[in-house]
Amino acid sequence: MTQDHDPADGIAFVDGAYVPLALASVPLIDRGFVRSDATYDVVHVWQGRFFRLDNHIERFHASMQGLHMSLPHSKADIAGILTECVRRSGLRDAYVQMTCTRGVPPRGTRDPRLCRNRFYAFAQPFVWIANEEQRREGLSMIVSSVQRIQPEAVDPRIKNFHWLDLTMGIFEAYENDAVVAVLTDRAGNVTEGAGFNVFAVRDGRLATPDRGVFEGMTRRTVIEMAREVGIGCEVRDVPADELRAADEIFITSTAGGIMPVTVLDGRIHGNGKPGPLTRRIHDLYWDRQHAAGLFTEIDYG
Ligand SMILES: Cc1ncc(COP(=O)(O)O)c(C=O)c1O
Questions:
Q1: CA of 214 to the centre of ligand 1 (A)
Q2: Which of 34, 128, 191, 210 is the most buried (most CB within 10 A)?
Q3: Distance from residue 110's CA to the centre of ligand 1 (Å)
Q4: Phi-psi region of 215 (alpha: psi -120 to 50; beta: other; left: phi over 0)
Q5: What number does the ligand 1 atom closest to the CA of 192 have?
Q6: Of 104, 125, 146, the domain-final residue
Q7: Whose CA is nearest to atom 1 of ligand 1?
Q8: Contact present, 15 and 85 (Cβ < 8 Å)
Q9: pLDDT in tens, 231-277
Q10: Residue 266 C-alpha to ligand 1 middle, in angstroms?
Q11: Domain that holds residue 210
């Protein structure tokens, strides 16, 4: 480790070695880079513990299978590599990504079957979709005019690098004094935004879109918690107008947990404060970080 690179800025594992994140690279002609031909997953570490590490690695494997990718690393190997990235970084709160790219095709071919798939991973300081004040007071969101890529074209359940629709949504949000954008599908149902799922609360019940979305781990955790504590939760189409009429709105992500939305399309939503159900789910979620069977303690040595 050179003096210029503080391990707490991030540690990566690439081509079999651990390096400072700032020095990690993949070849320009890897199809992951030139064709968005890659899949990945992100797990977080909170207070020195991975949350749902095995579930994230399972989902990563399912995504690779969906894209006809494979790696020489077992699930246990991947868990070990991720743990080592975090351990070397010393980070107690971290954003940890595992990625599989298609790799570089042999010279003279474009056949994706002939590529050796590449694995890399990194740990960096915890990433928050929203800053502290936004998380406390609520975020401003727009329903974007950009449509989410259709699930028939790119399966959003396979976590992917096709983010241009989501990124255009971010631009539209900033142009409208908001910080996040939720995209709709062709039928006008809400889908998801850049790195998050969305929930609407009405009459004490939750609803979240069932199709055209990445099935986020935080979303899954909310669905499970709601069922456990007896809060109704429907996974179904959520028309944009239903979101506009909701009592409360919140978004969910590994990068920030449960985040209230208090302004929608420039109008104050509800009474402009995070609602009681959102606050309850938020607290349940952070308690859940320490639930037996869901966390993996990191030994920092
Ligand atoms: C497009 C998209 N939707 C939803 C999510 C939320 O998923 P999770 O809760 O697993 O972080 C993400 C996470 O990055 C995402 O990229």
A1: 6
A2: 191
A3: 30
A4: beta
A5: 3
A6: 125
A7: 195
A8: no
A9: 999 999 999 999 999 999 999 999 999 999 999 999 998 899 999 99
A10: 24
A11: 132-288
